[in-house]
Design a protein that fits this description.
The chain is mostly beta strands. The chain is built from one helix and 26 strands.
Length: 341
């Protein structure tokens, strides 16, 4: 896909693949909605058109899919957008998600104006919830409720003092318990905490923490099941957050390269993909309980990406000119999507 993003930076979660058969590509000022055409590289068309675009009055700091929504909502898919004015905007397709534009249906802004929101994560279970992280280390859990005419109401249900430093990223983990939710909260000081949230959002309790102060500079993360991956230049840490007692951490070396920008977990095939700005994609596999790199798969993946670039972009240029910005895995885990400039 060849779209113009005017060199705007990709926000947190900048490229995702919705079950509504849409690529969600976030940039500094717009969120592009694209309909993918997943065919073999030899049959790819030269151009993909943007099917919809969400305009934002403020710069976009993060995007997060919210799907599938509970049955009481008028639609199955929604998107949370974190704006630079520390507000959370909710967008959804009020008609056909494949053909109609996604419109604003709700918003949330903390009552404490002095605090800057810096991270979001959404979950749709028996109740739809958005977690909003702040520079102060606090997290606000916002209940999302369906209103008339397809709108969504937002109510701050619970506040959590999650860290002494700014929140860098958050992710919901499937607890397998209908009475509780699990929220992973990471901070810029390298710490991560796993919180148990009652399903009615009445209270939260800290289950376990990991402190990796030498991991302050990690630049990408991913969560799948109970597995947390933190990646930085030259190394990756794989953390099992659901073990009894202290979380188990494995470390693996990455090739010497530039800044790590994206990390993806393929839970079905037990693979971890870590990408850097210079398009070095490391592939890790789990064998006998240990994670290690697979050089042969890395070479195959890079060649496949090179063919994709050559056949799908309208401008001819060398692969070495590309800068990787973000990666995502399709809902069926068959396709790895990358965004570059």
């Amino acid at each position: 896909m060849d779209i113009k993003v005017n060199r705007c930076p990709f926000p947190l979660g900048g490229v995702q693949w919705s079950t509504a058969n849409k690529f969600v590509v976030g940039t500094g000022g717009r969120v592009f909605m694209l309909t993918p055409e997943c065919v073999m590289a030899d049959d790819m068309r030269e151009k993909r058109e943007v099917s919809a675009a969400i305009e934002a009055a403020n710069s976009i700091e993060g995007v997060c899919l919210l799907e599938p929504l509970p049955k009481q909502y008028a639609y199955d898919n929604a998107l949370g957008v974190l704006a630079s004015d520390s507000s959370l905007r909710i967008f959804a397709p009020l008609g056909n998600p494949d053909t109609d534009n996604w419109s604003p249906v709700g918003s949330y802004k903390s009552k404490t104006d002095a605090r800057q929101m810096c991270a979001i994560s959404c979950i749709s279970a028996s109740v739809a919830v958005a977690a909003c992280g702040f520079m102060s280390g606090e997290v606000e859990l916002v209940r999302l409720e369906p209103l008339e005419e397809g709108n969504i109401g937002t109510t701050m249900a619970l506040g959590v003092d999650a860290s002494q430093d700014a929140i860098s990223c958050m992710a919901w983990i499937n607890s397998g318990d209908p009475h509780s939710l699990l929220l992973l909260v990471c901070a810029v000081d390298g710490s991560a905490g796993l919180w148990r949230i009652d399903s009615d959002l009445s209270q939260a309790s800290l289950l376990t923490t990991i402190g990796c102060r030498d991991w302050r500079a990690y630049t990408a993360y991913s969560v799948s099941g109970g597995c947390l991956v933190l990646a930085k230049t030259g190394s990756v840490a794989i953390v099992n957050m659901l073990t009894e007692g202290a979380p188990k951490i494995q470390y693996a070396a990455l090739p010497v390269s530039q800044t790590v920008v994206s990390c993806v977990i393929d839970e079905s095939r037990e693979r971890i993909y870590v990408g850097t700005t210079d398009f070095v994609i490391s592939v890790l596999s789990k064998k006998h309980g240990k994670w290690s790199r697979i050089p042969e798969e890395e070479r195959e993946l890079r060649e496949g990406m090179r063919q994709t670039v050559v056949k799908s972009f309208t401008t001819k240029f060398k692969m070495s000119c590309l800068m990787l910005r973000s990666m995502s895995l399709s809902p069926n885990a068959r396709y790895l999507v990358f965004a570059a400039e």
